[in-house]
Each structure stands twice: as C-alpha cells, then as structure tokens.
Amino acid sequence: MIFLSIINHNHDQMLINNKEITNIAKKFTVVIKSNTKATIELKEHCKKNNIQLLDASYNLGFGANNNYVFSYLKNTKKIKDSDYFLVINPDVTIKKEQLENLLNHALELDAEIFTVNLFRDLEWTIPESSIKRFPTLLGPVKGLLQSKRRNDAYDKKNIIKPTVIDWAAGSFLLFKKTAYETLKGFDDKFFMYFEDVDICRRAKINQMKIIYLPEIKATHKGAFNNRNIFSRHFLWYLKSYLIYHTGI
Question: 196 with 66: CB under 8 angstroms?
C-alpha cells in the first residue's frame, strides 16, 4: 500500500480542483497536512472524498511537515513495514493507474527509494530536470544563473529503463516505510530546499538505492521561486545550501 503525504500551504483550492487526488484516494491513503489553516471548503472536500486532513501545527518546514505525517501514520498504526510512504507536492498531478504501476515496480525492484518522470506540462512534452547528481559546491549557484539544463542534471532522454541515480526532487519521492524510518525522515534543519538532496545522500551512505522510473509519468507545475534573489525563497535556498555544504 502507498500512503501519500501532501503538504498544503495555501493550496486549498488547488487540492480541491485536483481530480486525480480524489480518484487516488479511492484506492490509496491520502493525507493532507495543512501548514496554513485549512478552509471550510477543503475540510468538506476531504471529508467527502475519504482524504485525511491534518489541520494543525502550522508554519513548519517542508521536511518537518512530512515527518509529522509519517509520525501520525506510524503512531496510529495505519502504516505497516511492508508499505510505502510517498512525499508528493500539491502541484503534482499523477493518475491512479500510474501510481499503481509505480507500486508494482517498487515491489519488483531492489531499491528503497523511487521517483518518476516529471514534466512541466500535462501533455508530457517538457521534461523537468528533477533527477541530478550530488551537487558540487558551485553547482547549485550555476544552476540558478543558467536558464538551460544544469550540468549536474541527468539527461532524461538517454534513460529508457529503471536506473539508479544520486538524488531526486522532493516533489515526488517514494520511500519504503522501513527506509524512511531508518533515515529518521528529513532533517528539519532544512526549512525548505536541499532536504531532498540531504536525505538521498544519507540514503546512499546507508547503502540504499534510489531508482528513477522513466516510463511512469507525472506533471509538476513548480513555481521555482528560489530563482528570484529578492525573495524569501532565495534566502531559504541560500541558508539550506550553506547547511548542506558546511553541516552548520
């Protein structure tokens, strides 16, 4: 079984409008953790569609929110050792059939963490650079300054079968429950950004594999707010960049 963890930060209407989540909730457990007070409309929508809403403990970071969901599932004994924990952004759209295919692959392949082929459009014509090699000190800085594909990003068009990679964006990461538990989840020193790189690096240190599945596709309409150097997102990015590379 897959348990979906979706963090809501003023995405109430987006989540209500996402019909794929409603459809997925018919088979898999969907948990929405509100980082901002949920609207009445979202509460009613979740109740109607068998979606679990955790409307408490606001203003946490990305990693801390997902750890909150995992702890809830573990403490209520909803998730078992044989299950999977999916960290998925509210602006990611994936069909139930693709998720079922993902589960089948996860059960068959020898790995602890999985990710899928993310695109920026619903037609799956604009690939997102969501899988990368571990960053060098200047790699992320160059990535912010370049409009073209980063040089540490894998070239997706050359990957046609399940492949072990260094790390994948936290917008879509599927963990074996036992793997997430062993890693103690995300490091909440990272409020936002680099928590995905960090957990994948710790996974590799623990001899865990991360597999990219090119044939399973989803759409991610990310905002990429960290590219604006005058935004608080950029400041969060810079702080996390320094924590990742210095450990401070």
Answer: no
Parallel, antiparallel or unpaired: strands 29-34 and 2-8 = parallel
pLDDT at 31: 98
Which residue blocks in 9-116 are alpha helix, DSSP H? 12-17, 19-24, 40-48, 62-75, 96-108
Give yes or no for a contact between 28 and 4, defined as CB atoms under 8 angstroms apart. yes
Which tokens belong to 186?
């995300």
CA 192, 226, 196, 17 dihedral sign is positive
Residue (of 25, 59, 68, 60) closest to 45 by Cα position: 25
Closest CA to 7 of 119, 86, 123: 86
Distance (Å, whole) CA 198 – CA 221: 23
User: Percent helix, strand and coil across the chain, each rounded to 5?
Assistant: 40, 20, 40
Cα angle value 230/231/234 (rounded, 5°): 95
Q: Which residue has the tokens 């597999």?
A: 211
pTM: 0.88
Q: Is 94 in contact with 119 (CB distance < 8 Å)?
A: no
pLDDT along the chain (248 residues), means of 10: 97 96 97 98 98 96 96 97 97 97 97 97 93 77 58 91 96 98 90 82 96 97 56 57 58
Distance CA 62, CA 54 (A): 15
Query: Could you tell me how far CA 117 lies from the centroid of its own chain?
Result: 12
Written as six digits, the tokens of 60 are: 């946490």
58 φ/ψ angles, rounded to the nearest 5 degrees: -80, 165
